[in-house]
Write the structure tokens for this entry.
Amino acid sequence: MNTLRRIFTFFTVVACALSVMALDLPVKTLNGTKYYYYKVKKNESVYGLSKKLGMSRDEIVRHNPAADDGIKKGMTLYFPYDEYATKSEPKAAVEEPIDTVAVDTASDKASSIVLMLPFGLENKEQSRRNKLALDFYKGFLMAADTLASRNGLVEIHAIDIDVENSRFDAILHDEAVTNASVIVAPDNGAAYRKIAKTARENGNYVLNVFLVADSLYTENPNVLQANIPHLDMYRLAVDAFESDFKDYTPVILRNRTGRNEKEAFVSYFMERCSQRGIVPIEISYENNLVSADLKNLATNAGQRYVFVPSSGSMTEFNKFAYVIKAIRDRAAVSGNDVSGAEFELFGYPDWTAYRGEALDTLHKLGATVYSRFFDDFNSFDSRTLQSNFRRWYGHSIIESIPSQAVLGYDTGCFLIKNLRANDGAFDPVSPRSYSGLQSTFDFDKSEQGYYNSTLYIIKYHTDGTMTSRTL
């Protein structure tokens, strides 16, 4: 089979007291369930189609959320057969045969991916969380489209879990969920744990890309944690520091009246320094770092220093960055008291969210950052995805860190390629690694489940460019 079948089924069961007319549309059966379907023609709009089909715009969008941003030629819209077929007015349904899905010989489950996300399709007004979930889904669909011409049949289902608990529990027993090869879990911890428990009983894999600090993978063999655990992240970050700054003296910066929320990392960092027989310099300042706070740093023999602050917030960044920039600028000019000395800055994932003047300052400081993700948003590939997203959906990607649309795109590419590489079965560790636009998936096996072992080390260059490497 040379096509990727994208099945976009949103489970938003609606109790409706009004009788509805059967749709005069062809019918196909997807995963055992009947749907009316309509292929959008050139220049059609959601409003015009609502008049043509005799339903409201909200009805169209409820069953086809991507239509909320407009429709385009070739797009297929689906409507549950049971909801629109009436006993009083039966229609001769035209059944479209379904292609046989290639399955692994050791399993009776079709190759399929289920996205269980809080789309909020029944909410009167969607929250930012709902919109970000839809952005993730839209990015996932773009990945499906990108890979559509390659071999291997994969079904994709999207399920709205922003519903009442009783309905959510019923969804867990839906055939699409129980037969899934892999399930993408939501950012709701309670829902995620229910999904993981059910998946373990059914033999599905569950991918957690949203809950950063979750440790369910340590007790459930069917869970994949897509974010590197904190301690492993600290270990790799300090490994990179020791490699990149082995001849530098570390300088810890603390604001006595500041947040200092990175003390956990700083404590680990200082422990590693102690193991190497290195004693970092510690500078404590009040409110804002000033030049006088650095006066005790010896600079007469080309010394090299790397600053490690105890906070990653922009507020705290602005309280020390400009003094470090000033001393770097002076060191680059001969004939003064710091000539020939070198000053670098090592910091945190939070900084990847910086834009505007703060981003410009990161470049001027030549900062080095560790992060679970990396998106060089000015790169050709990133700009191409952003452009295609606007063309597909009529609006820009919602700004977030990390970008949920790009995360959806990377996740889709990773999962679809994995299923195809394994003849329809999902294998967490083969192929070993997938590098996307923003994320890299490379899973190690814990005593139970799996965790992503990849960390980005990002370098901001003074010429305005960025480079990264993965550990």
Remarks:
- Residues 128-146 form the longest helix (19 residues).
- Residues 93 and 301 are 86 Å apart (CA to CA).
- DSSP finds 13 helices and 20 strands in the chain.
